Amino acid sequence: MSQQEATLSPAVAAVLADVDAFDWTAVSHAYGDASDMPSMLRALVVDAGDDSDSGSESVSDLWGAIVHQGTVYSASTASVPFLARLAAAGAATRECLWLLGWMAASDDTAPGAEDDIRNAVRAHADVLEPLASHDDGEIRKAAVHALGQTRSIDLFPALRAARDDDEDALVRAEAVIAMVRCGAPDTAGVVAAAYADPADAVRLAGVFASFDAGRPWTRETKEALLSVPDPDSIAGQLLDDRHEALAWVVEQLCDSGHGEAAASLLIEAAEREHADLAVVLYAATIACERSRAATELLRPFAVKHVDAEGARMLTQTLGLTPGPEPLPLPVQATPDQLLGDDANLDVEEMRTRLAVPLPEYARLTTPVVDKKLALAAALWERTDDPAPVVAAVTEVTDRLAEREGFLWGYQRANAARTAARLGVEAAALELVLRALLDDPIALAAAATALARAGCDFDVDNVADRLAAQAGQYRGDDTVTALATLAPLLSPAAVQRWRNVIERDARFVTGGQLGTFVAADEQFRDALRDALAGADA
After folding, report:
1. How far is CA 227 from CA 29, 188, 198, 274, in A?
2. Among 174-178, 270-274, 417-421, where is mean pLDDT lowest?
3. Top-confidence residue, 273 or 417
4. Terminal-to-terminal C-alpha distance of the chain
């Protein structure tokens, strides 16, 4: 036993004894077996307050295991009572509250951890609530944050008391956000009171709370935000994930169809005496990447500040200064290109390799699936016999049936893409392809294959579903599907697609930095060309 561990209070020692007695092999965390949870919890307690980096390391280790990238696990739920008791006993109190708050905030639950972790934290609110009155402001702030993440209206009185009575502006700010999260009966009053608060942190919290409550963007909200001299610095002191406050607000406005309001906010923000122009320029880049209306309004603004520090990403995004070119839409590789050296195999060797069944799911990999489909397509090209493709696509889709996740969705799309090569002969796969219409990732390729095969299906419905997810998955599949379906669409469906193509929100919101705007317009041009077939 270390010297630090020997000085633990009886209350803390009792919690750790219960931790040791718990069957951690019955639960799991991000790295699998949770049998190391006792050692991690003990390290958290022992290292808390240590002047070395060991304290932060133990928090990081535990964080990575039970709230890994925002995902919670069965071990996360199991840890809640121990973390709550440790916090109440004064052992790593702030760190335990951090963990409890972020776990309660999570809506991403790993398979096997279906129990609501928010309910688990809520069940220990009576243990945590007194910590909102702790002598240490950092602990009070963490406690208020954790209580707010429970979304429990029963905690509203305690949160209101923290907002009204605490001398620490950051605690009051956390309380404003927490009150709205817990269902404040008068959100308008909570937000208005925050806007009138003399503390910058509380006014900024009022802006966040206004968005959390779904309230409209108003002049008062804009003024509250612009009145805060350094919103990003203040946001970084809150236990929240909105550390880039101005950029976050801009994202919310653009994503809700208010790109013009976002541009107006930024232009006005840059004129404020206390403005950090680099922060404004960064947020302007975000606005242009998400809204076409914001882009046009901010273009003169970008020209005005083209030589300012921090303007490079914005000016490259708008094409005002040289920058990277957007990557072209992918071109579907030929079967021989996909096979590489195996393209030189003779027909009989290809048949022999295709006859080998796919391995069981536990040993199935994407290269194995890709090779199976590419071999089948290459054999069809050499023999005009569709049977190998029909067999391979059927085998792949059967093996991946009910398997979830992007990885296997893209493999199902690959199977549909392979089937589409057959044209009318893909009709033999009609039932398989119809089932693939239920997979959003495979939807476009399956629709292309069905249309080329001459199968009867609700083309307008499928086109509408493609429009609703355009830009989310492989853009070339969507473009190919739209070009294939365009001559079959009703005038109403064509108009719906035209409206989608000309919408304000960007399709392309990821990829190579500095190219989002150009890549988005490139994708729109491809969609316009594809839809032109409707008028042919």
Report:
1. 43, 19, 10, 9
2. 270-274
3. 417
4. 82
**Residue 535 backbone phi and psi in degrees, to 5:** -100, 0
Quote the distance between the C-alpha of residue 186 and its chain's center.
30
β-pair type (71-72, 67-68): antiparallel
CA R_g for the chain = 28
| Per-residue pLDDT at 222 | 98
> Which position has the token pair 């069957």?
23
Query: Residue 198: is it exposed, middle or buried by C-beta count within 10 angstroms (0-12/13-18/19+)?
Result: exposed
pLDDT at 5: 56
Residue 337: alpha-carbon gap to chain centroid:
33
- Residues written for the chain: 536
Spatial distance between the Cα atoms of 466 and 423, rounded to a whole number of angstroms:
21
């991403």: which residue's tokens?
A: 108
The answer to whether 327 and 512 have CB atoms below 8 angstroms apart is yes
Task: Report strand pairing: 108-109 vs 71-72.
Answer: parallel
E strand or H helix at 71, and its extent?
A: strand 71-72
Closest CA to 145 of 24, 137, 289, 85: 137
Structure tokens belonging to residue 144: 């208020």
Distance of alpha carbon 83 from the chain centroid:
27
> Residues 90-94: contacts with CB within 8 Å, 24+ apart?
90/9, 90/11, 90/12, 91/8, 91/9, 91/12, 91/15, 91/45, 91/48, 92/44, 92/45, 92/47, 92/48, 92/59, 93/131, 93/134, 93/136, 93/139, 93/142, 94/136, 94/138, 94/139, 94/142
Q: What is the pLDDT of residues 377-395, one digit of tens each?
A: 999 999 999 999 999 999 9
Strands (E), 278-350: none
3-state secondary structure 436-467: HCCCCCCHHHHHHHHHHCCCCCCHHHHHHHHH
Bridge-based pairing of strands 32-33 and 28-29 is antiparallel
pLDDT score recorded for residue 329: 80
- Flag whether pLDDT at 55 surpasses 60: no
Q: For residue 312, give both structure tokens.
A: 């490079």
